[in-house]
Amino acid sequence: MTAYADVSLFPRNAKPLSSYRKYWAERFGVAPFLPMSRDEMTQLGWDSCDIIIVTGDAYVDHPSFGMAVIGRMLENQGFRVGIISQPDWQSAEPFKALGKPNLFFGVTAGNMDSMINRYTADRKMRSDDAYTAGDVGGKRPDRAAIVYTQRCKEAYKDVPIILGGIEGSLRRIAHYDYWSDKVRRSVVIDSKCDLLLYGNAERAVVEIAHRLAAKEPVQQITDVRGTAFLRRETPEGWFEIDSTSVDAPGRVEAHVNPYLMISEQALEQGESCARNDEARAVADTANAKTKFKAGESPLVFAPNPSLQTPGKLKVPPRDRSVIRLPSYEQVKSDPVLYAHANRVLHLETNPGNARAIVQAHGEGPTARDVWITPPPIPLTTAEMDLVFDLPYARSPHPVYADENGSHDGATKIPAWEMIRFSVNIMRGCFGGCTFCSITEHEGRIIQSRSEDSVIREIEDIRDKVPGFTGVISDLGGPTANMYRIGCKSPEIESACRKPSCVYPDVCQNLNTDHSSLIHMYRRARAVKGVKKILIGSGLRYDLAVKSPEYIRELVTHHVGGYLKIAPEHTEMGPLSKMMKPGIGSYDKFKQLFDKFSEQAGKKQFLVPYFIAAHPGTSDEDMMHLAMWLKTHGFRADQVQTFYPSPMATATAMYHSGRNPLGRVTRTSETVDIVRGDRRRRLHKAFLRYHDANNWPLLREALKAMGRADLIGNGKKHLIPFHQPRIDGSYVSTRRKNSTEATPVRRSVKPGRVLTQHTGLPPRKKA
C-alpha cells in the first residue's frame, strides 16, 4: 500500500450556525408559535411555508422537544416553518394541511422511537402516550418515520423529504427489530427519504436548508456530516476499507483493521513498540497544557502526531475513507456478522476520527448502498446558547388548550408537565452504557451551555411560565453531572476510539472537575424568586465520587428527600456487559451521601434502579441481586426489564449472542441471553422478591437452582414457605415428611394489602 503523507485526518472547524446569510423571508419576523393551520399562516402574512415539519408528538414550543428546536432554529435562519402534528396517517390529505412546502418536508416520529412509545418490554400495547394531549395512546402509527415519509411523498411527489429524530437516527443501518424479532433494512431504504439526519441535527439541517434554498438538487447534497442517503456505487477517489467478513484468510495488509486502536494498528503492521511511547508522549504534552479547561473553548480537533510520521503507518486519508460493512443480506442471515457490524459502527462514532460507513442493501442490478457520513461536529458553547436562547413560547400550542386557555385535564400533555420547570444544561454522554442509545444519538462529547444562558432560562421560567412556584425541577441533561467535563486534551480526544470514558475505570485523561457545575448551582439558587433547585436527571455516581465537594453541594441543597441513581446490578457478569462500574462505586457514593446528609441535618435516601433480564445475566446473578436488595432493605415498586432498542450494543448482544465489546470472531465470547417470557418473568420476579404473587415462581426456580435454603421464614431467607390466600390467611408450601423447619402459621384480616415499598428502608415500629 502507498503511504499517504501530508493529509489532514481530522475535520476542519465547522461553519458556525450564526454565520449564514439570512433567507429573504426573515422579514416576516418571529412567530408566537410556529403555525399549525392555514389561518395562522394568514395571520402571519404567509402565503406558503418554506419548510413543514411533520411530527408524531403534540407540538410543544419548548427546547426539550425536537420539532420546536429544529423549527425555531430554521426560523432563526429566516425560513417560514410550519408544523403538522400527529396527522391522521390513513390518507395523504392531512399532510396537505399547510400546502406545499417551498423547500422540503422535515419528518420525525417524535422524541421517542414510535415502537418503544407504543409497546412495553413484554411487547404489550400501551394505552397511554406522554407526548399526546390527554395522555391518549394511538395518535401515531407504528414505525411512524416510515409512514409519515411515505405519506409526504404521496402528498407532493417532487418535494424533498428530510428524515430526522431519534427513530430515524437509531435505524440508519440494518438493525435488529425487537418487535418483529428480525433484522430490518435501514430506514433510509424503507422510508424512501431523500436524506436522513442522525444525531442532534441543527448543524446539518441549517446547511441543507440554505443549499436547497440556493436551488441545489437534494441528490447532490452528499457531503454533509451526520447524514445518510442512497448511492449506487462508491465515487471515484474514495478508499474503501473492506470489513464485510470476520474471517480473513492469510495475511492481509491492504487495509487497516477498523477494530484496532492507534497503537494496535502500528503493532499489527509490524511497527516497533516505540509507537506506544510516541502516543504516551502526545498525552504527556497535552496534559501539560494546564490552561485548557473542557467546554470553555470551541471544539477543535487537532491532528495526532502519532499518525503523522511519513512512510510508517500506512493509512489512507480519513476524509476519503469509507468502511464497507457486511450487507443487509449478510447481517440478516448471520448473527456473528451482525455483531461485527455493530462493533465497527460504534468504533466510528468519534467525530474527530470517524470515517464514512457504507452498507449494501439488495443484490444484482437493484443493489444500493446506504452511505453514512461521519458524525456531526459538536456544537460550541456559543452555538448551544444560540439554540437554547431562541424565542420559545415554553408551552404547548394553543390548539391543545381548553376554553379557558388551560392545558390541564383532557388537554394535559404529561411530557411537558414533566419538563415544564426544568432546564437542560448540556448534551451528550461519554458513559457508553450498552443498553442506552444516548451516545449513538447525541454523541459522547459533552456540549455545554454557558452559565449565563442557563440563568436566563431560569429567569424566563420564573417570569413567563404559568404555575411556577419557585421550584426548578431539574438542572441536567442525559447525565446530571457531566457539565463541562471532557478530555483534558483535544489531541487525545481526536484520536480516542474508546466507547466509554468511565469504564472500566474513569480515564486518567478525563477532566473530572465539577467546579463549574457547583458554581452554576450556587448562582441558580441565588436567582430572585427561586426557592429550590432540584436535580432530577440521572447521576453518574462513579464520576461524582471524584468530587466530594460536588456531592456535598448536591446533598445539602438539591435533593428533595430522594435521589435516583442507577447501579443497574450488583454482579460483575451483567455489569461487564452493561459497561457499568462495580457495586463498590455505589457503596462509596452512598457513604458520602449519608455523611453529607447527616451534616446537613436531613433524612434523605438513595433510590437505586436495577435492570432485569439484561444480556449476560444468569439466574444466579438475579438471585444474588435479590438477596442484596433484601439485605439493604429495598423493595422496588417499579422494575425495568431490558428493552432491546435499535442500534444499542446490548441489543446486538441480545440478537447475536456475542459480545461486540471485544473483537468478534466465530469463536469469540458468547453471552447468556435471557429469552422467553418465563425466564424474563423470573428475572423480574427476583427484583420484586417481596411480592407474594412472585413467590410460587421463585420457589420453583430456587429449588431447581439447588438453593432451597433461601426459602424460609428467617432473616437470611429470600422468600417464605407460606403463601397468602385470597381471604388473607396463609397456607404452607412445605412438603409433608420434609426435614425443613415447620413454618409459623399466621393469619391476617381479610382484605389486608401487602405493603409495597418505594425504596426506603423498612420502617421501625414506634
UniProtKB/TrEMBL annotation:
<dbReference type="InterPro" id="IPR007197">
    <property type="entry name" value="rSAM"/>
</dbReference>
<dbReference type="InterPro" id="IPR006638">
    <property type="entry name" value="Elp3/MiaA/NifB-like_rSAM"/>
</dbReference>
<dbReference type="Pfam" id="PF08497">
    <property type="entry name" value="Radical_SAM_N"/>
</dbReference>
<keyword id="KW-0004">4Fe-4S</keyword>
<keyword id="KW-0479">Metal-binding</keyword>
<feature type="binding site">
    <location>
        <position position="436"/>
    </location>
    <ligand>
        <name>[4Fe-4S] cluster</name>
    </ligand>
</feature>
<dbReference type="GO" id="GO:0051539">
    <property type="term" value="F:4 iron, 4 sulfur cluster binding"/>
</dbReference>
<dbReference type="InterPro" id="IPR020612">
    <property type="entry name" value="Methylthiotransferase_CS"/>
</dbReference>
<feature type="domain" description="Radical SAM core">
    <location>
        <begin position="415"/>
        <end position="691"/>
    </location>
</feature>
<dbReference type="InterPro" id="IPR058240">
    <property type="entry name" value="rSAM_sf"/>
</dbReference>
<dbReference type="InterPro" id="IPR024560">
    <property type="entry name" value="UPF0313_C"/>
</dbReference>
<comment type="similarity">
    <text>Belongs to the UPF0313 family.</text>
</comment>
<feature type="binding site">
    <location>
        <position position="433"/>
    </location>
    <ligand>
        <name>[4Fe-4S] cluster</name>
    </ligand>
</feature>
<keyword id="KW-0408">Iron</keyword>
<dbReference type="GO" id="GO:0005506">
    <property type="term" value="F:iron ion binding"/>
</dbReference>
<dbReference type="GO" id="GO:0003824">
    <property type="term" value="F:catalytic activity"/>
</dbReference>
<feature type="region of interest" description="Disordered">
    <location>
        <begin position="732"/>
        <end position="766"/>
    </location>
</feature>
<keyword id="KW-0949">S-adenosyl-L-methionine</keyword>
<dbReference type="InterPro" id="IPR013704">
    <property type="entry name" value="UPF0313_N"/>
</dbReference>
<protein>
    <submittedName>
        <fullName>YgiQ family radical SAM protein</fullName>
    </submittedName>
</protein>
<dbReference type="InterPro" id="IPR023404">
    <property type="entry name" value="rSAM_horseshoe"/>
</dbReference>
<keyword id="KW-0411">Iron-sulfur</keyword>
<dbReference type="Pfam" id="PF04055">
    <property type="entry name" value="Radical_SAM"/>
</dbReference>
<dbReference type="InterPro" id="IPR022946">
    <property type="entry name" value="UPF0313"/>
</dbReference>
<feature type="binding site">
    <location>
        <position position="429"/>
    </location>
    <ligand>
        <name>[4Fe-4S] cluster</name>
    </ligand>
</feature>
<dbReference type="Pfam" id="PF11842">
    <property type="entry name" value="DUF3362"/>
</dbReference>
